[in-house]
Amino acid sequence: MSETEKIAVVGVGIHPFGRHEGVSGLQMAAVAAREALADAGLQWSDIQFAAGGSDAAGNADTSVASLGLTGVPFINVKNGCATGGSALITAHAMLANGSADLALVMGFDKHPPGAFDPRPEDWGIGSWYGETGLMLTTQFFGMKIQRYMWEHGISDSTLAKVAVKAFQNGSLNEHAWRRTPLSEEAVLGSRMISHPLTQYMFCSPGEGAVALVLARGERARSLRRDPVYLSGVAFRTREFGTFEVFSPSVPVHTATPPTTVAARAAMEAAGIEPADVRVAQLQDTESGAEVMHLAETGLCEHGEQEQLIQSGATEIGGRLPVNTDGGCIANGEPIGASGLRQVREVVLQLRGAAGSRQVPDDPKVGFTHVYGAPGVSACTVLTR
């Protein structure tokens, strides 16, 4: 991609994650959008295209009532846990084809307490699937990681250490929901939810918002001396034979998961290899998800996670820091915002502006991955 076509993240904004009484999802989105615009040194009237979405908190395009009625083209996106990543890819495509030089992407949500409990009919599955309890995602995650642990030699201790790292990193993040560090013993000893996953290994549906400002070519360089480039973006859905959320059967022969295909495509577009990544944000709906996605994205081999995590390699000071802001486990999962939270964190890390959770050695390549039902993955490579 030529210099005039490069697309960068020039502004980031966030509304704290957690629970916020009396504040709507759209209000949180407006807070994040104004912060992102201020970070970029822009006004809402400068924005030429916008995309955003939520799962349960309203239509993103109605935020123009708060931000300003400028007539900006605004596309609503709703794509499960991949909503934020999908909105980002939508805006990236508009800038890449020259339809705009400046775009804003937002994601937000405000979920009720408790596990997600959708209707199977909305996902193309018979009512029997819900009647047997399988629509509870905790069941799926437990089943999938059980098999993976048996196949690749992953221990309960490694699952617990993923959560310990998440809560430790979350304690360094002023915008995180869960900010109290926990010991491995506390994680393993917490209430069993779906074997082998205990209560503190899971994230919780929550509230929050994130916004990003994207700029193209000369506009990006005029706005920031330190632009972080979106060097690769990719989105994929599942293929026949993969075992994904809300799958009513387990394949005999497992196909390549959408995460692997999306990660390869994003890295190829950026011209990098997995070994080039110096900081990563991976979907960690629960501890097992981070373990599996480490290998599915190509950041390690299947089974290598046991040694990586036990050795501390995925901690902030390790050779491959993962989920440096605490991930979903510490931040919670407001569906529309999660994928954009990941990108915001990597942007801060590449700017050297992540404060007490800053990755050492001046990282120049970051990677993000968000995954959602019924088997969709969005990945980005960010560079400077």
Order of H and E elements = EHEHEHEHHHHEEEHEHEHHHHEE
Which architecture per CATH? 3-Layer(aba) Sandwich
Low-confidence runs of at least 5 consecutive residues: none
- Integer average pLDDT: 94
CATH topology: Peroxisomal Thiolase, Chain A, domain 1
Q: Can you give the helix content as a percent range?
A: 25-40%
The order of strands across the largest sheet is 3-2-4-7-1-8-11-10-9
Distance between the termini: 14 Å
Strand fraction equals 15-25%
SS-derived structural category = alpha/beta
What's the CATH H-level homologous superfamily? Thiolase/Chalcone synthase
Main sheet summary: 9 strands, mixed
The tally of beta strands, per DSSP, is 11
- Categorize the overall geometry: globular
The CATH class assignment is Alpha Beta
Report the radius of gyration as a whole number of Å.
Answer: 19 Å
Please report the number of helical segments. 13
Overall tally of structural domains: 1
Key traits:
13 helices; 11 strands; Peroxisomal Thiolase, Chain A, domain 1; 19% strand; 35% helix; alpha/beta; 384 residues; two-stranded antiparallel sheet; nine-stranded mixed sheet; single chain
Can you offer a commentary on this structure?
With 384 residues, the protein is α/β, with parallel strands linked by helices. The protein has one domain (7-113, 203-383): Thiolase/Chalcone synthase (Peroxisomal Thiolase, Chain A, domain 1, 3-Layer(aba) Sandwich). 35% of the residues lie in helices and 19% in strands. It contains 13 helices and eleven strands. The protein has helices at residues 25-40, 64-67, 83-96, 127-131, 137-152, 156-170, 184-189, 217-223, 258-270, 287-296, 305-311, 327-331, 335-351; strands at 7-18, 49-53, 74-76, 102-110, 192-194, 197-198, 207-216, 228-237, 279-282, 365-372, 376-383. It has a nine-stranded mixed sheet. A hairpin with a 3-residue loop joins strand 10 (365-372) and strand 11 (376-383). The radius of gyration is 19 Å and the shape is globular. 54% of the residues are buried. The model has no long low-confidence stretch (mean pLDDT 94).
